[in-house]
Each structure stands twice: as structure tokens, then as C-alpha cells.
Amino acid sequence: MIEKTFNDSKVYICEDTARVIVYNPSPENKMDIIDFIDKSNFTCAAVFTEHASVARTYQYYFNCSVTNNMRDVKKIEESFS
User: Any residues with CB less than 8 A from the CB of 78 and at least 6 apart, and which?
Assistant: First the structure.
């Protein structure tokens, strides 16, 4: 698994499937991360965030699972090979 950092946010990329999980994107860096995912042709699998506006943005762009429940995101991360 590859890790990319955007300030305090982390993006984990599964090398086999090109799926990503985003942890703690902020209103300030959400578009930088979205651009990175889009330009890299990755698929967003899940986003962990406490910010409602950030959650809506990721759901709009990627229609992926967005939650503030760490357990849900960890289950998705465990499915990465």
C-alpha cells in the first residue's frame, strides 16, 4: 500500500486495484486530493471525515463511501490486497 500525505490528511492507495482511502481531508485541501485521485485515475473507495461539506464534495465527485465512523473505513481498508 502506498501512502501520500496532504498536510494532515493521508491517502492510502492499493497498488493492485488503484483504489484509495482518504483520511481526514480538510476543507482547505479537499480539492488538491480530489485532483490527485482524478489525474492518477484512481478509484475512491472510502473517505473518513468529520466535515459535512467535505463529505458532500467527495460524494459528489466520486460517489464513494464517506463516513465519520473509523470502523467502517477500516473494514474497507482490510479488503485491499
Answer: none
